[in-house]
């Protein structure tokens, strides 16, 4: 039963704000994308709800009613309110379930999986053929380690909606985690049929081909990616390594040359770009680029660590030692994890000179 909170006077009319008022605004936003008319069509036989809607519509003449009215929304409380108002899933005819989907995702992102699954169940009680709900449930189950159960829901999602790209992505991940790399490749390829510009998926397929020792097909996958993104530095770098493993040194050098004609734009491009540039003795160019990055982002530990190599090569040992001492003291495990970069690019004498044991 709604409790009275406050009475407002608007143009001489008294408007009662109750404990139901925030829930009615939430109902409008979550299930009707902010549309009062669609809500009223479904709730026209619910006297209490209609009265609240009338109050809200009058209030909105002077104040905007948005998520600040009801956030944070506690879904179990929202569900309890629906039960108190005798609103059941069969009452929802003109709804959009996107708001509930996003809410379930928010709960899952905060590791409140039980509540996320409750929201998904509520969605399916409203519409048992809502494919995104099956996709989300399956993806969450995979994330929770319940892979085989998750696959069942993901299969249901693509059965209902064969164009649901995210379900194929999650099916690929699920089968990869089970060690069934060929099935993972199959589903990721299905994903690319509908979304050929998803660059991450090309790398996932490449990794799966590595697992079954098909470096030739891994290389072909990255070649496809480079057709849509010719300057993708991580793809160029991996492809150079694959060509070298496959005995094609000429193509490997060609990929490295392309990398040296690029500039890193994203964090994931920084290390492969620097590795190739340093391998080919382009020390001053690397210093120039990395110092600009460190100047704009002083906490960029990777850029600082990579600077050690060109500093040593250019005889600026003191600068190299200063960086190593700072990272070693304040971020030891990061330094330890990246030490192989220094081992690869510095000689034993150079490492001793800057204090690397």
Automatic annotation (TrEMBL):
One Pfam family, short name: TPR_11
SMART domains cross-referenced by the UniProt entry: TPR (SM00028)
Superkingdom of this protein's organism: Bacteria
Repeat recorded as keyword: yes
SUPFAM superfamilies, alphabetized: TPR-like
Presence of keyword Phosphoprotein: no
UniProt TPR repeat ranges: 131-164, 165-198, 199-232
Keywords: Repeat, TPR repeat
Gene3D superfamilies: Tetratricopeptide repeat domain (1.25.40.10)
InterPro entries registered for this protein in UniProt: CellSynth/LPSAsmb/PSIAsmb, TPR-like_helical_dom_sf, TPR_rpt
Official protein name in the record: Tetratricopeptide TPR_2 repeat protein
